[in-house]
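Might I ask for a little of your time on a matter of protein folding? Here, with my thanks, is the record as I have it:
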Amino acid sequence: MPTSYFSGSLVSSQRILYTPSAFAKKNLLHLQEVGTLQAQKPHTSKRKDLVSYLLFIVLSGSGTLTYNGVDYDLKKGDCVFIDCRKPYSHRSSEDLWQLQWAHFYGQNMNNIFEKYIERAGQVTFHPINTTAFLTTLSELYQLADSEEYVRDMMINEKLSSLLTLIMKESHYTEGVIHLSQKKYNMQDVKEYLDNHYQEKISLDELASLFYINKFYLTRVFKEQYGLSIYSYLQQIKITHAKQLLRFTDDTLESISLACNMGDPTYFSRTFKKIEGISPGEFRKRWQEG
C-alpha cells in the first residue's frame, strides 16, 4: 500500500488513502484514511457530506474545531470524534498544530456515535491515556501499509479497539474529572445492587440507604455506568436467570422468584424481550445434555 507524502505551503503530511475490499465495506469496520499532518501556517479546512467518521488527536500546538455551529478550542492532547456527514471545519492557530488522525466507517457506526454522544456529551474530550490512542492510530497506519493477507480483518479489530478507547476515555474529559471530584462515587451503590438484586429495591429506599437525593442518584449512576439503575438491575437479573436455566433444572416459577422477576409470565416476557428467545428455548439451546 503506497504511502503518500505531501509538503505544501499550508501543511506537510504523511498519510495512506486506503481502499478496503467489498467484503470489508459491507461487513466490517473499515479504514478510509490514516496519517499525520503538520500545519505550515494558520489555515481553515472545511468539509461536509463525507460518509465517514473522523478521530483526530492534537499532538502539539493548538487550533479550533467548528462542528454543528459550535466552536471548540483545542490544545495538545485533545481528541475529536465527529460524524463527517455534517459540515465541519478546523483551523490551526499561530501555534501551528500537528495532528494524527483516522477516517473510518462501518454499518453500525451511526448507533455507536449516538451512544458516544450520549456518554461524552460533546465531540471533543481530553483522554487520560493519550498513549493508547497514538499507539492504536500508529498500528492502523502500519496495517494499512502492510501486505497482510487478512489485513481488513486486522484493521477491523484495531478500529474496534479504537472505539472502545473512545467510549472509555471520552467519559473522563477534563470537565468531567473536575466535576467528579464533587460527585458521589457510585461504586458502593453498584455493589449493593450486585448483592441485593434478589430483593425488592425501590429508588426511594436506595436513596435513603446511601443518604443521596434520588434524582441525583439516578443521574450520576447513569453517568458513571452508562445504564439506568433499573436497566442495570434487569441486566443482573437476566444474567442470573441464564445461569439457572443452563446449569439447573429449576422451574421457570422458581427461577423468576429467585431473580425477583415476578410471576413466570412476566419473567418469560421480559426475558424474551431482552434475549430474543423464550427462557425455555434458551434452556433447550444451551443446557448441557
About this structure: Residues 172-182 have pLDDT under 50 and may be disordered. DSSP finds twelve helices and eleven strands in the chain. The two ends are 51 Å apart (CA to CA). Residues 151-169 form the longest helix (19 residues).
